[in-house]
Fold this sequence. Notes:
Blueprint: E1 2-8, H1 31-42, E2 45-49, E3 63-64, H2 76-84, E4 92-99, H3 107-114, E5 120-123, E6 129-136, H4 137-142, H5 153-158, E7 163-165, H6 183-194
Parallel strand pairs: 1-2, 1-4, 2-3, 5-7
Antiparallel strand pairs: 4-6, 5-6
Amino acid sequence: MSAIGLLLAGGSSRRLGQDKALLTVASGQSLLAHSGSLLRQVCAHCCWAPGQRDDLAAPPDWIRVEDDLELAGPASPLLRFVAERLSEFPQASGLLLMAVDQPCLEESHLRLLMAQKESALAESAEGRGALPAWILLEDLAKLRAEPAAQPRLMATLQSVCRRRVTLPTASCGLPATFNLNTPDDLQRYREHCRAPGHDPAC
Length: 202
């Protein structure tokens, strides 16, 4: 059995004010490279969804997943993958869904989520469902029957993810599910990574 990884990397970064996918993080890599490296450590098959962007590049063996233009919304690439590509991986145990804007995730966080016996969402510090998500193969198949004009990602995931998992705090001291959405988020991230005693490669 092997896992599929799908990295969502198509955001516009409007709130952040700069391209988050190409932003250099504490490890010295771009967020795209950092997230991709993490995914490769835990998944046998890696896919990515850059949305309408043509200026990003992933390793040549990665599968590019396009948005479904008839299903505009953040869940679009996930639903398109399930509809068009899932049958290519009949031996897969499940799919790990990640977002490119989470610089504090570590391999141990992903393995903890993937060790669950049922489909699971990470839980944010505020107690809400958050990415990453681990979706078992049988639950992925159910997503095919979720019609929506504009599918919302969390609503789509919560329809099959019955478990929430609180991930340990990252080595930099921030929540594992921390997102880089705004300039304030970026400043907070950089301050934590510079703080004495914190891992500079958070």
